[in-house]
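Exercise: predict the fold of this chain.
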Amino acid sequence: MPSRGMEMRNHQRNNPARITFLLAMAFAFLFPISAGAAAKMKPEHKEFLSVVRYIITRQEQKVFKKLPEENRDAFIEEFWRKRDPDPYTETNEFRDAYFARIEEANQLFRGEGSPGWLGDRGRVYILLGPPDRRDTYPSGRRIPEPPLEVWYYGFFPIVFLDFSWSGAYKLEPDSAWQVAKLNQAAMALKPRIDGQEGELPFHFTVKPLFDAEKKSILQIILPYRQIRLQPDPDGESGRAEILVHIEVRSPSGVLVRDLHDTFPIVLKKTDLDALQKNHTQVIRLDLPPGTYKLTVDLENKIDASRNRQTLDWEIK
């Protein structure tokens, strides 16, 4: 019997409206329209491109501009659907968090001559969230240094400088490289939930597998870039402690396994490239043949961010 997730995927694949939309996207990719046609875009579609500037890929932007006008609303719906961390809820947590950060940036970074979310500080705030620490130096740290701010994400400092003394802070070039490393391809932002209101959710993937002895195991995959680390006293590395709670139930709801575990994650300051990779943790279940419903809860003790994944698993 197909799982709920498979039924949803099959419905999405066979949905006539979605198929029509995907065909339109393919047509737009293969047969470019003129720049004049793109210039005739409706105001609400121009607004969409402006608002998602930090998370839309170049390819998505290119396809959107080539689409016939009547297919652009479907593209927008699909754009947010692909980023929805939990399609079974009525709300799209990623979209809500993204717009919440825009509003917060507008409130926090006024006085730059444009809406706060459009400045460098607003962009970093939207992509990386609130910093763990924000040090401000309105008159610089020393003469003749311009006003500056230093934001800390774990042990990574991000520096903004107001070269013109006008309130328009710009990202320092070295910090720009660091931001790129911390959040390479803004499009890759994934949920990282509930650490605090408005924060993007804490995302992880669960894969049911079998080891060499054909025993059932769970592989838990966490992107490093979404794990908030606490700096060690020497400032050269950071660590997190992840709490795991796994419930395994029968189709009738009887509890079969109730597992609690903890595993550490350690990352050195020199391992910036690792932020684009994943941490993989294996949990042994050793379940007998049968049909099960699994609930996997993870929590990062550093910032209390957490998330839950559920899946069905038939073991023969």
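Check your answer against the key: The first helix runs from residue 4 to 14.
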